[in-house]
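Section 3.1: Structural characterization of target chains.
Under the original work plan, the team committed to producing a structural model for every single-chain target entering the pipeline before any wet-lab resources were allocated. The record below documents one such target. The sequence was received from the expression subgroup and is listed exactly as submitted; it comprises 425 residues.
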Amino acid sequence: MPRRSAVDPIAALRHSGFLVYLLGGLVANVGVQMRIVAVQWEITIREPDPRRLALYLGYIGLTLVLPVLFFALPAGAAADRYSRRWIILVAEVGLAVCGLGLAWTSWVQAPLPYIYALLFGTGTFRALGWPASSALVTGLVPAKTFSNAATWRSNAYQLASTLGPLVGGFLLAWWSPVLVFLIDAASSMVLAVCMLFVRPRPQERVVEPRSWRALLQGIHFLRRQPIILSTMTLDMVAVLFGGVVALLPIFSTQVFHMGAIGLGWMRAMPALGSIAMGMIIALRPPIERGGRTILITVTVFGVATIVFALSTSFALALTALFILGAADNISVVIRQTVLQLLTPDSMRGRVTAVSVIFIGSSNELGEFESGVTASLLGLVPSVVFGGVMTLVTVAVVSVIWPELSRLGALDKLQPPEPGEAEAIV
C-alpha cells in the first residue's frame, strides 16, 4: 500500500502575498471583534431593562446585515470586474472612518440612533470588501494549497475572535469604549496599508456587459451546484438559529454575574475551540469525506448550543462554547473550500457575494433573531430553540441534497467546464 506524502501544515504561509494578507486581516479582524464587544457593552450599560436590552442588542445585527442585503451583489460584480485588492483597501479606509465616528458617539454620549447609523456604515463597507477579500485568496496561492489557506484564514479569524473580545473586555473594564473604537479604526488602516504590498496573480475579469443578468449570474450558477448550495444552507441556518453571540452580555451579567471580563471570555471561547480544531486540521491531510464530516460537525454545533443554554455552571458554559467553536471551524473550512474550488475565477466575486448574503448576513440576522426570540420566549428557551432548529436543518439538508453525503476529498475539487450544467461531486 503506497504511503501518503507528508503533510505540509504551512504550505499556504510559504506564499508571501498570502502571509501579508493573512497578518493584515488578523489585525483588522481583532479590531472588528473589539468594535462589536464595545458596541454591545455601550448599549448594555445604557439600558437596564433585560427584555428591551435583548431587543436593542438584536438591532446591532439587523443594522449590520441590511447593507449586506442591499450591496453584496453589486460588490460581488465589482470584484469580478475591478481590482480586488483596491476594493479591499477602500473598504478598510471606510471602516476606519466609521470606527472614529463610534469613538465620538461614545465620548459625547450621543443618542443610540447615531451608533446604529455608524454601524450601518460599518456594514456597508464590509459588504463592499467581503466578496473581494474571499475571492482574492485564489490569486495568492495555488489551487492545491487552497484548503490549507482556508484553514489558516479560519484560524486567523478565530484568533482575532479570541484576542478581540478578551482585549476589548479588559479595556472596557479599565477605561471606556472610546479607546476600543480608536484601536479598531487603527487596525482597519493596517490592512489597508498591507494591500499596497500584496501582488496577486492577474484575475480573470468578467467580460459580459454591465446588466442585471451579469449581476445575478452568481445566483444562476449556484442553482446548478447542489454541493455548494447544501453546504451554504447548513452554515446559514446553523448560524441563524444556533448563534448565541448577541445574548452573551445578558448571560454574562444576569446569569453568571461575571461582568465585562466574563463577556470577553465567553466571546473568546468559541474562537479558542476553533483555533484548536484549526491546528488539528492543518496538521492532517485534506479532509477525505467532506460531506459526512460537515453533517456531523453541524450536529455537534446544535447539541453544544443546547448544552450552553441549559448550563448553570460558568465552566460548563465555556466548555460548550469551546466545542461549538471547534465544530464550526470544520464546517467553515469545508464550505469555503467547496465554494472557491468549484467556482470559476471569473465568477468568484459574484458567487462569493451570494455566499455573503446567505452566510454573512445570517450572523447578523441570527443576532437579531436571538434578540427578538429572547424578548418573546425568554433567554434560555430562545437558545434551546436555536439548537433544536440546527439539528432539524441537518436532517432536512441530508434528505434534500443526498449528493452532499457523497462528497469526498476536498483537495480534488475542480470548477465545472464553461457551460457545464452539472455539479461536480
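The chain has 15 helices and no strands.
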